[in-house]
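Bile acid:sodium symporter family protein
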Amino acid sequence: MVISSTSARLLYILSVVSLLLYIITTLADIEILNQYNGSGLLLILFFLLLALAFRGHELLKGYSFTIMIFAAVSAAMYYPQYFTNVGDFKLSKLIVPLMQIIMFGMGTGLSMRDFARVVRMPKGVIAGVLCHYLIMPLVAFGITRIFQFPDEIAAGIILIGSCPNGLASNVMTYLARANLALSVTLTAISTFIAPFVTPFFMSLLAGQYVEIDFWAMVWDITKIVIIPVTAGLVFNYFLHGKFKWLDEIMPVISMGGIALIIVVITSAGRDSLLEVGPKLIAAVIMHNMSGYVLGYLSARTLRMKERDCRTIAIEVGLQNAGLGSSLALALGKLSTVGLAAAVFAPVMNITGSSLALWFRNKPLPQEESFDSEEVVKHA
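Predicted structure tokens:
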């Protein structure tokens, strides 16, 4: 959707009005609004209008989806009863199928050359995978020690830290004008080794908080991630270019699926989130930012090129929050273990977009500029 600058200005004004009305109605003791959570509608309207306004601004339109997520989360917090069941059907049952569809979409965007790059750029791939799977789980474990969360919330933080790279990392890397080929390869490799690495770290670091069945988690990740991604990879190999509409619709389905997953988790865990919300948000931001900083510094220590350092920073900091949510559901603890994933998703989109734009505006060393353009062109 394209928004003109005039329409964007009007939307900004309306969003500010909505926010002011929300603040006024929240502070005022209006019985009918309190009875029906009417102020919640104003907050949702504020985020929706702001998201649409961002579509009319070249620099801010990348944040539009994230603001939409805030609208969805607001709806889940104020009206959780509408996002837990539809009749006798539990909406949480949609989480795994949605993730499988999203993972299939990811597979259709991969090709065998993404795996062949391991041979052509082994240092970057090995460094990126090691940094991701060492930094994020260990930082998560440290955070649980600092904040002293309830056991299942702590396990959720370690779970999101033990997941593979996030689906958004390739987009962020592209925006940052970093090494897109390396980014796609790291996402592919980290995803395919996740069935063993994620359960290993969960057993090692989170076993003290919740009971972990290693082989059950291996199978859960295999059916949620590996089988759909492999199916997408095969589909792309044999039918590449024959279903162009699929390339256009899959990003929309993925964004919608992620939004619905977050809403369902937030609704299920609303009471727990109200109890630990501010502290959990602080912990998730610390976790996410540590991934960027430690990933970048690790790559610099290994004397890697600047664009590769930027790529690894993004790949380390962004996690597959959807997988974390699905595994929390498989553990039967969606409303507690799944909360960290629900919070991590919008946080990483905001910080990841901001970091990507900052990298984009910070010129690469002259000798790397041409290489970076070629990587983006041919990836």
